[in-house]
Specification:
heterodimer, A: alpha/beta, Aconitase, domain 4, B: alpha/beta, Aconitase, domain 3, 2 domains, 5-stranded parallel sheet, 15 helices, about 35% helix
């Protein structure tokens, strides 16, 4: 699966309140509508200009704060291709895997990539390519790769329980 | 080689002789906590295609995030939850007004030494104050626990924090936790089990201890642990749901990092906008004007917190134009505070006392700030927009400082009031 898009670059410690504000957690339940609030308090332009396949590139501890899964769902809804960060907050990282949104830890790529760069992410090869440069990242741990490949935790659980789609 | 608390509890729960950091284990939690998000979780659960919740006995559902319902949408959400728990035989259900889920989990005797707890809320580590392994998870994961009774966990690396000596007068466990977060940073314990010890921790009462693991979520921790002692056992007497067996880290456990502090060096601090690790000594921001003060939440809404604030407010009035919102962390705290006369003190000082729950902490209702306003709060998060508008500022501090600031109209410690 090749992921291709433009880079949206942000800093360290991007928290879930600025990715998806807490005040919407019980009033917005439709994924498409969640997408309309994506990064609302971080980058008011993002939700209007992001295109399918675009990649968020950020510093350390991306997704810190609340466990709210909408902070992942809202980006999936906008068809964000991947998030590349120096590190991820752990619940956010789990939520990404469970929603099959590639969360890639690659500090070198973060330092090199600039806002607006064209970037390609190859999950099988473990490579990030941009402007002739290539950065490599380790594959997901085997135990969680199955969840990712199934398309997320819910389809994975269905498969495990032998429930037809 | 010895093992950390996290390694020992995960081995116990997975039925293994021993485990090592990085290993993935599958476990059945002793308790699985969810709140108002049980409605969307129930929707995900149904989408899996399983009819009955696998282990209704382990689920604990507490309505707290927007209670009582501020809008029809919130009320619908609560209604879905009441119908779901009734249908699925989930009997550990606590309706609006009982309190904040982490406080209720403790008061109802689910947060026990040597148990494993997960919760679809990032402040689930709070239960680590009782020697439990308690970690936050996402909604989909809670739905899968409903379907299967199981969850995968990665055995974390561990960080040991030792606090020697004694905290000074007027310095609280909130100051200690914020000081450490400021020192180690918002990712200072990313993915780690934070295991506390030392005389200063032993000297704290159980309520003050709860503030520390609660705040470790703001350092990226998976869980945090305080060794249970006779104070823990005494607190749990009459509350514990079942017999429990405490677990302690081995003396020769291997920690990724050990950090030591001298409690006597720690002074009152605040976390400035807009990150929790933006911690400075209180004296650096003393005099900053405030519009609103908020006393409550899973961090500092317990009886001892209210007692400290009441002591400051006794016989005093709020500064003109400043609001003080007080929200007891639970109905039990509310009753105890009534009995002790604290509620009268708050109301006489000019404060607003609201019903137990999360209140304005994440911007839902009950005292959200206006644009351009400054709030000083006992909560655990000050992110931009957290309380509803990104055009406002939140300072985090201890109950002592919040109460004193409400009287002065600017940030101040009660010793300087």
């Amino acid at each position: 699966m090749a992921i291709k898009g433009r880079v949206w670059k942000y800093g360290d410690d991007v928290n879930t309140d600025v990715i998806f504000p807490g005040k919407y957690t019980y009033t917005v339940s439709d994924p498409a509508e969640m997408g309309e609030h994506a990064l609302e308090d971080l980058d008011p332009e993002f939700r209007f200009k992001v295109r399918p396949g675009d990649v968020i590139v950020a510093g350390k501890n991306f997704g810190c704060g609340s466990s709210r899964e909408q902070a992942v769902t809202c980006l999936v809804s906008k068809q964000v291709g991947a998030i590349i960060a120096k590190s991820f907050a752990r619940i956010y990282y789990r939520n990404c895997i469970n929603n099959a949104l590639p969360a890639i830890t690659c500090p070198e790529a973060v330092d090199a990539l600039e806002d607006g760069d064209e970037v390609e992410v190859d999950l099988e090869a473990g490579e990030i390519r941009s402007g002739g440069r290539t950065f490599t990242f380790p594959p997901l741990p085997e135990a969680v790769m199955g969840i990712f490949e199934a398309g997320g935790l819910i389809p994975y659980t269905r498969r495990r329980l032998g429930i037809e789609e | 080689m010895g093992h950390t608390f996290a390694e020992k509890i995960l081995a116990r729960k997975a039925g293994l002789e021993e485990v090592v950091p990085g290993q993935i284990v599958e476990v059945t939690p002793d308790a699985a906590l969810s709140h108002d998000n049980t409605a969307p979780i129930s929707k995900i659960f149904r989408s899996i295609g399983v009819e009955r919740v696998a282990r209704p006995d382990i689920h604990v559902v507490v309505l707290d995030h927007a209670t009582p319902a501020p809008t029809t949408k919130h009320a619908q959400n609560h209604k879905v939850i009441r119908e779901f728990v009734a249908e699925q035989g989930i009997t550990h259900f606590y309706d609006v007004g009982r309190g904040v889920c982490h406080q209720v989990l403790a008061e109802e005797g689910f947060a026990l030494p040597g148990t494993l707890i997960v919760g679809s809320d990032s402040h689930t580590p709070t239960a680590g104050a009782f020697g439990a392994f308690a970690a936050g998870i996402g909604r989909s994961e809670m739905a899968v626990i409903m379907a299967t009774g199981r969850i995968w966990l990665r055995v974390p690396e561990s960080l040991k924090i030792v606090v020697h000596g004694q905290l000074r007068e007027g310095v609280t466990s909130k100051d200690l936790a914020l000081h450490v977060i400021g020192d180690l940073g918002a990712d200072g314990a990313l993915y780690q089990s934070v295991e506390w010890s030392g005389e200063a921790i032993e000297a704290l009462d159980v309520e003050a201890r709860m503030t520390i693991p609660n705040l470790m979520a703001e350092m990226g921790a998976k869980n945090a642990y305080i060794p249970p002692d006779e104070k823990t056992v005494a607190w749990l007497r009459g509350r514990a749901r079942r017999p429990y067996e405490a677990l302690y880290p081995d003396h020769d456990a291997e920690y990724q990092r050990v950090v030591e502090y001298d409690a006597g060096d720690i002074e009152p601090v605040v976390a400035k906008p807009h990150t929790v690790d933006n911690v400075v000594p209180l004296r650096e921001v003393a005099g900053t004007p405030i519009n609103q003060a908020f006393l409550g939440t899973c961090t500092n809404g317990r009886l001892s917190d209210l007692a400290q604030a009441a002591q400051v407010l006794e016989g005093r009035q709020l500064h003109p134009g400043v609001r003080l919102v007080v929200i007891p962390a639970s109905s039990q705290v509310y009753l105890d505070a009534l009995e002790a006369g604290y509620i009268r003190t708050f109301v006489e000082a000019g404060a607003v006392v609201e019903s137990p729950g999360c209140g304005p902490c994440m911007g839902n209702h009950m005292g959200v700030p206006a644009e351009g306003e400054v709030t000083i709060s006992t909560a655990n998060r000050n992110f931009r927009g957290r309380m509803g508008t990104k055009e406002s500022e939140i300072y985090l501090a201890s109950p002592l400082v919040v109460a004193a600031s409400a009287v002065a109209g600017y940030i101040v410690h009660p010793q300087d009031l």
